[in-house]
Design goal:
Elements (H helix, E strand, L loop, with lengths): L1 H10 L5 H8 L3 E5 L3 E6 L2 H20 L7 E6 L12 E3 L2 E2 L11 E2 L18 H11 L8 E6 L5 H15 L5 E5 H13 L3 H10 L3 E5 L8 H16 L3 E6 L11 H7 L3 E5 L4 H14 L6 H10 L4 H18 L5 H12 L8 H11 L4 H5 L5 H17 L4 H7 L4 H17 L1 H17 L1
Parallel strand pairs: 2-3, 6-8, 7-10, 7-11, 8-9, 9-10
Antiparallel strand pairs: 1-2, 4-5
Length: about 450
């Protein structure tokens, strides 16, 4: 179009001729009006690269022809035939590349296809970590340039780092992303020391890295040389405004045998802990994984799994896989006996110790009320009595402190003391209530 030709003429005075012929000339203008200026490029990478490197120049030139600059959008040219382009090289270590292209490519470990932001179930236990990672993936430093995520096994820190990598590779493929574990970094450094090529190692991370994702940083405990080199890399990347995510099994302050200055660098940005998911988040995780596996689970079964597998999410995945296999083999939908058998194979017949949360949720089901009601301020007998029963059983069957029991019901410890006294007195006077409490106790013990 005429306007696009005029814009390209203006661009020729702003960017080098080689870049103009390589990145601007192939673009086709498919819409140009007051609202939208749409340019079509050969592929997604091309769109991303031009948007990242030349969008501002295009806007400035376009503004000279419009009173109001329209939205500039890049799309893939569907009419252009895809042709294979030969890869030109002189040798393995000195690959020819197109002008204005990054000198180094991304180095990314294998990514799990379902470890994306869309598949990550967010709850109170992981909301901050998820928000920070998503911001960083979108090139925002609202939560800082450097993020450290710590959690136990199977709680989602790898899922988040995979999600960051997926997002960057899909939306900004020109970004030089280095994603590896601390063990891989150590092995790579040892190889370079043996080959007398440490300058190449330093250059790879200092000069050709836009985003560094590193898992299992706690394994660098005692590895003084690796700590020194990584600390230097972190300093350089942060000075250049690059982005970093570290993960570990514990916060930096608890990692033993690491240099004080290295510990300080790990803690230089946001440190976020992912805790075990709460009951509702576990339910969301189970429902999502069951849906992905095309497995039909009733609310009762979902609740039972959520109550009995409360930590490692990989165990939840294993349970879903086991139920899918067993139900397919028997050609029947899962029932409670099948769920109990599968869970026993995963975590053993001796399940986790009873907790106030498990007892509260169990009582809610037995009395046909909701968890929200038990946590509410309601003093209706239909709510208050089950709440008092649950508090009594929590004190009887767990070792948790009165304050911890109270938190599960949004109450303080004095309310728990009062509830225990009320139920104890009622049991002594009322045979029916005593029978109910004994029955509930037996059910809880069998369930556990």
């Amino acid at each position: 179009m005429i306007k696009w030709n005029a814009v390209k003429e203006k661009l020729s005075h702003k960017i080098p001729e080689s870049a103009l012929s390589l990145w601007i000339e192939p673009l086709k203008c498919i819409r140009a009006d007051d609202e939208l200026f749409e340019l079509a490029a050969p592929d997604r990478f091309f769109c991303s690269w031009v948007a990242k490197n030349y969008l501002q120049e295009i806007k400035e030139c376009l503004a000279q022809f419009n009173e109001k600059t329209p939205e500039i959008r890049f799309s893939i040219d569907q009419t252009q035939e895809k042709t294979e382009r030969p890869l030109l090289t002189h040798n393995k270590s000195d690959q020819l590349r197109l002008p204005s292209m990054p000198k180094a490519r991304s180095y990314v470990r294998s990514l799990h296809p379902r470890f994306t932001f869309d598949e990550f179930m967010t709850g109170e236990s992981n909301a901050l970590a998820r928000t920070a990672c998503e911001a960083l993936a979108n090139d925002s430093v609202d939560h800082g340039q450097c993020i450290y995520i710590d959690s136990g096994t199977g709680l989602g820190k790898s899922h988040l780092t995979h999600a960051v990598a997926h997002h960057i590779l899909n939306n900004s493929p020109g970004t030089r992303l280095h994603y590896l574990t601390a063990q891989q970094l150590t092995a790579e450094m040892v190889r370079n020391i043996k080959n007398n090529s440490m300058e190449e190692f330093k250059g790879k991370y200092n000069n050709h890295c836009d985003v560094l994702l590193m898992e299992d940083v706690h394994t660098l405990s005692g590895r003084t040389k690796t700590q020194e080199e990584l600390a230097s890399v972190v300093d350089t990347l942060l000075e250049k405004g690059k982005r970093i995510i570290f993960t570990g099994a514990m916060p930096p302050r608890k990692i033993e045998n690491i240099d004080t200055s290295f510990r300080s660098r790990l803690s230089s940005g946001l440190v976020s802990t992912i805790n075990p998911p709460d009951f509702q988040t576990r339910i969301n995780i189970i429902n999502r994984k069951a849906t992905n596996s095309k497995l039909d689970l009733s609310e009762e079964l979902v609740n039972y799994i959520a109550e009995n597998i409360r930590g490692d999410i990989r165990q939840t995945e294993s349970a879903i896989v086991g139920l899918k296999a067993k139900s397919s083999l028997l050609k029947t939908i899962p029932d409670l006996d099948m769920v109990k058998e599968v869970i026993a194979n995963i975590v053993g017949h001796q399940q986790f110790d009873l907790s106030t949360e498990v007892i509260r949720n169990f009582i809610a089901r037995q009395f046909k009320t909701s968890i929200d009601d038990l946590r509410s301020k309601s003093r209706k007998k239909a709510v208050a009595f089950p709440r008092q029963i649950a508090m009594y059983l929590a004190r009887k069957l767990t070792d948790q402190a009165l304050s911890d029991i109270g938190k599960a019901f949004n109450r303080d410890h004095s309310t728990v003391v009062h509830s225990i006294r009320v139920i104890s007195d009622t049991i002594a006077r009322n045979v029916s209530v005593r029978g109910q409490v004994e029955l509930l106790t037996e059910k809880l013990k069998k369930q556990n």
